[in-house]
Give the backbone structure.
Amino acid sequence: MRYPYRMPQAWIELTDARGTRHRHSLREGLTTIGGRRGDVALDGTDGDQLHIWDRPPKLLFVGAGELPRVNGRAAEEHALRSGDVIEWRGARLEFSGLAYAQLEEIELPPVPAPVAPVATSAASEDPAWNRLRAGLLVELGLAEPQAARRWQDAILRSEFEPESCARDLLSSSNVPAGDPRLLERATRLQRDLIMSPVQRGLRGQTRRIRSAASNWFAMALMQLLVLVVFMALFGVALFIVRVRWQWSVDAYLDRLAALLRGE
C-alpha cells in the first residue's frame, strides 16, 4: 500500500552561545523555547520565552527582557517564513519547514494483526480530562501564574490551542490529579452538569417558580421582622423620653388635634 502525500514538519536549527548546534522538530500548534519549562531548553533566558506557532507560522515573545531579532530587526511578534533567522540571548535559531507540501510516495508497512487492548487507568492519557483539569487548575488558582496569563492572552488573540494549553498548564503545575481541591470542584461541576437537564423545560420552570415563591416569602418575613424591631426601638425611645424629660407624645398629639379643630 502506498500513500501519495507527506507534509514536511517544521524545525529549527539552534546554535547556542557555545557554538553547539542542535536541530529540534517543532510541535503541532505551539512550541515554547527557553524559560523554566520550555519545550526547547535555552540557557540564560530566565522567565522569558519564545513561542512559535505553526498555523500560521508566527514568532511571539513572552517576557519583559531583551527582544529577539528576526533577520536583524527586533520584533515582539513576527510572521515566520522558511529561512528566517532569529537571534536571542546569544543563540541563533533558523526556522525551516511548513513552506510547501511535497509529493512523495511512501511505502507503508503492512497492517499488523489486531492485538487485545491494554487496559489503563492513567487519567493523564484522556485528553478530555487533561483539558478539564487544566481549566480547573486556573479557576482554583493552582496553575503556574505566568502560564495561565500566557494562555489568557492567547485566547484574547484568538490563538487558543486546547491540547497545547493543557500540556503547558499541566506540565508547569505540581498539583497531582487526585488533589482533594480538584476532586471537590470536579464533583460540584459533575453535579451541575447532571442536573442541567432538570433546569430546562416544565420541571425547570416548576423549580424556578417554587424557588421564587420561597424567596418572596423569605423577603416578606424579613421585612416584617425589620418593622417589628423598628417599632420596638421606637417604643423604647418614647419611654426613655417620658421618664427622663417628662415629655409625652400623647400630650403633643392632643395639642395638635385641638389646633386642627380650631380650639
About this structure: DSSP finds six helices and twelve strands in the chain. The first helix runs from residue 127 to 139. Confidence is low (pLDDT under 50) at residues 1-7, 99-106, 115-123. The longest strand covers residues 49-54.
